[in-house]
Specification:
- The chain has one domain.
- The protein is built from five helices and seven strands.
- By secondary structure, it is α+β, with helices and mostly antiparallel strands.
């Protein structure tokens, strides 16, 4: 498992959550299927990505937050798609817990999700995964995994997006 890393996520920044309604008071909800960084409330620093997330719904809503980091939290940041990133996603998507309050890094989009499933199932090798997994556009996600982490979010506004 990785050591904690200082990143730009140790400074105040604006982040976005895409969904079907405004989320003024985020909560951590356990999903039926494990996600990239485990159970938590997911946001992104890329507004266009939040719009993509929201586009799955008939009513697309982007909630905007100010992220005010707490230096006492355990924050893990991946600087791209690395071996460590892949191993962490495999760990989380296997339903195993981790010790971090906030995790951020690249997102495994739908196609990469399939490659990860193939890798977990030994259908493809690690080397084959990396050949297939190159992104066409940058992605980013932040998972707020604990109630303490959610306290770092201040709701600013919400926007409705036409699709």
């Amino acid at each position: 498992m990785s050591s904690l890393k200082k990143s730009k996520h140790s400074i105040k920044m604006k982040i976005y959550h895409g969904g079907y309604c405004p989320v003024e008071n985020p909560k951590i909800t356990k999903r039926k299927y494990p996600k990239d960084f485990g159970t938590g409330f997911y946001c992104t620093e890329l507004e266009r990505q939040a719009v993509r997330w929201a586009s799955r719904y008939d009513t697309a809503v982007i909630s905007v937050y100010e992220y005010l980091p707490d230096e006492h939290l355990k924050i893990l940041h991946f600087e791209g798609m690395t071996e460590e990133w892949l191993d962490f996603i495999v760990h989380c998507r296997s339903g195993k817990p981790h010790q971090f309050d906030v995790v951020s890094g690249a997102m495994a989009n739908d196609q990469v999700f399939n490659y990860i499933s193939d890798f977990i199932g030994n259908v493809i090798t690690r080397e084959q995964f990396w050949v297939l997994a190159k992104f066409k556009y940058p992605t980013h996600q932040m998972c707020f995994c604990t109630k303490r982490a959610l306290n770092c979010l201040k709701f600013v506004e919400w926007k409705s997006h036409s699709l």
